[in-house]
Amino acid sequence: MPVVRLSAAVVARRLVFALCALLLAFGVAACGSQHSHGAAGVNVADANNNGGYVFAGPLTYQLQISRVLNQYSTEDSQYVRGLPYGVSANLPASEMWYGVFLWAKNQTHQPQTTTDNFKIVDTQGDTYYPVKLNTTLNSFAWTAQTLLPGSVQPEPDTIAGQGPTQGGLLLFKVSTNVFSNRPLVLFILGSNNQKLGSISLDL
Predict the structure, then answer these.
(1) pLDDT tens, position by position, 57-99
(2) Angle at CA 169, nearest 5°, toward 47 and 80?
(3) pTM of the model
(4) DSSP codes of every residue in 72-118
(5) 50 and 103 Cβ atoms separated by less than 8 Å
(6) In angstroms, rounded to a whole number, what is the distance separating the alpha carbons of residues 141 and 79?
(7) CA dist., res. 137 & res. 174, Å (int)
(8) Cβ pair 174, 100 in contact under 8 A
């Protein structure tokens, strides 16, 4: 198995994450400003918080990074592969690609399945859903996976795990109006569309 070298920033975030999990095990209600509870028990991370994490259902999700993608750049062109039939990577001036890169860990003692049900909502109530990507053509695409206890998604030895973001990709096609309708919020949803958690997104 190849040796995986994580960036210093990712290692630091993971160490903070592990420390917070340890403190929570001893009954600490919250860790810093990145983990707070919103209405109806929804976990909300602070805005502009790449590296923020939430406890959503039985799993913990961490925002690695979220940003506008340029489909013409060498790196970002990889993220817009595997689009559904009839959907072009080239968008009109009124739309843009927006990538959310997630990491998840199963800290329970039982196998758990990550969700593939997400949405982004802006301050005007406009809602955006991830574009369904062909995972045989896009190795970065996030998919629901069953994680054994202690396992993470994406796995460190995968293309997504070793990529620049070290996260699985949720690809959104959004209106350029979102710049005026910030902040954006990513909702992590369950199988019945119940809200498990949410993360404020940088834009």
Answers:
(1) 999 999 999 999 999 999 999 999 999 999 999 999 999 999 9
(2) 115
(3) 0.78
(4) TSTTGGGTT-SPPTT--SS--TTEEEEEEEEEEE--SSS-EE---EE
(5) no
(6) 8
(7) 22
(8) no
